[in-house]
Amino acid sequence: MTNKELAELMYPDVTKTIADYEAMYPERDLPEGAVVSRFAPSPTGFVHMGSLMSSFVERFVPKTTGGVFYLRIEDTDQKREVENGIKGIIEDLDNFGITRDEGVVSETEDSGAYGPYIQSKRTEIYHTFAKWMVENDYAYPCFCSAEELDEMRKRQEAKKGRIGYYGGWAKCRDLTNEERAERIKNGESWTLRIKSRGNETRKCIVNDLVRGKIEFPENDIDHVLIKENGIPVYHFAHLVDDHLMRTTHVLRGEEWLPSTPLHTELFKMFGFTQPKYGHLGLLMKIDEEGTRRKLSKRKDPEAAVSFYHEKGIPLMAVYKYLLTIANSNFEAWLDANPDASIYDFKFDFKKMSASGSLFDVEKMFNIAKNHISRMKASDVYDEVLKYYNEFNPDFAKLISDKKDYTISILNIEREQKKPRKDYACWSDVLPQIWYMYDELYNPENYEWMNITDKQEIKNIVTTYIDKYYDENDDKDTWFNKIKELTDELGYCSDMKKYKENPDAYKGNVADVSTAIRVAITSKSQTPDLYEILKLLGKDRIRNRINNL
Q1: pLDDT digits 0-9 by tens, 245-276
Q2: What's the predicted TM-score (pTM) here?
Q3: What radius of gyration, in Å, describes the C-alpha atoms of the chain?
Q4: Of 274, 247, 323, 330, which is closest to residue 34 (Cα–Cα)?
Q5: Which CATH number fits domain 285-373: 3.40.1190.10, 3.20.20.70, 1.10.1160.10, 3.90.380.10?
Q6: In the CATH scheme, what is the code of domain 454-546?
Q7: CA distance readout (Å), 402 to 385, 390, 480, 540
């Protein structure tokens, strides 16, 4: 029996050829140097920060080279799938603005000329490529049961040898085609294995985008390519998909490094151009004991991208942080070009860390604070409204009804050389400005500082509002009146004099202004008091004083 006849017996329903698919999915018409990359997750859980970083880079580089970024769902391991896994991936990417040029749109739809983009819908294509491998003696059916393979592994372990289906251990490799055909006709289950031409004494050399030149022993193991149920394993499916979708660059975790010789062998068998691989190091963190460890989906809430969406960290701040840990020279570039678009930055795969990047959520928050402080108040308002429409519709309604007033609150100490950096994320806004709204102002606790006597406080704020406060005063006049009030009530308006003889006074001007601040807002720390009072207005200030 010929290999072609065996292939026909194994895959009788395959009617197309590889040439047919080459015609269906031609080379892309793109500029020279354009990168085609993909994010290809399995629907087995939430998107984590490592995935977000790789998907961001996989989108960033095509965007800056005139290329294509697409989303492919690799659902061949159906035992590990979670409910709504695809939907969750799409929502996570959408929440972080990771837009796709092509690929999966929903659990049932995709968009683009190179689909389907869900692997479970591409079985016919995989079988066409598998049939070609059998025809050309690059693959064969294996009839070994799980029990036989387990027994083989135990014997290999006992002999302290290499684990795998190779050499003399590959007992189905040398069956004749007639023997294979007979067993198939008898209804025996089979998997498809590569008939490796490798030799572990020879070297497989790979030029990794991140790690540079790496040498491996060649693959000589006859790995499974197609499982008993006809579904391909990752090794085979990604070969077919990356070739037909014309992928040029693949970023993936370092756990795939040992598989690279197998992938190289597969591409050589077909005569296809292999994508450029970049194997990323793990995201690390310093734990409470000071130990460097892997960022854990189980232990660390900041590992899930939903953490950042729920916090409301601005997308651009997330992007800037991801670029900071992805390329070692980005932070210096950003400092030198604070107003430039991040897409003006030239990404360099060689600047990525091969040993793993340290993930510091506090640094991301600091980047976010800097980013938000440079935004216009009206833009901050738009983002805050969008965030609270999702997470607190009642507050969203309030600030929507009071748009101009809210923008004025958000603008306090913003348009100055060193703007305030109060907000690291949109969820910070409500806890920091709630006291500016009478609808929300019902303080349970006043953060009194050095002056705590209620009668003294009442006297300070009543005297101030009745005798000194004028909404039309400029800031200098306003502060001079605070000083006058201070001296009138037995406090010291001159801090130098106060420090020389503190016992001669009831307190100082800072104590008096803090008492006013707390009486009006309940908070001891707020933005500029002058601006707060001006926005509240005299009647509302008086009403709050009366309710002390």
Answers
A1: 999 999 998 999 999 999 999 999 999 999 99
A2: 0.86
A3: 33
A4: 247
A5: 1.10.1160.10
A6: 1.10.10.350
A7: 11, 18, 32, 16
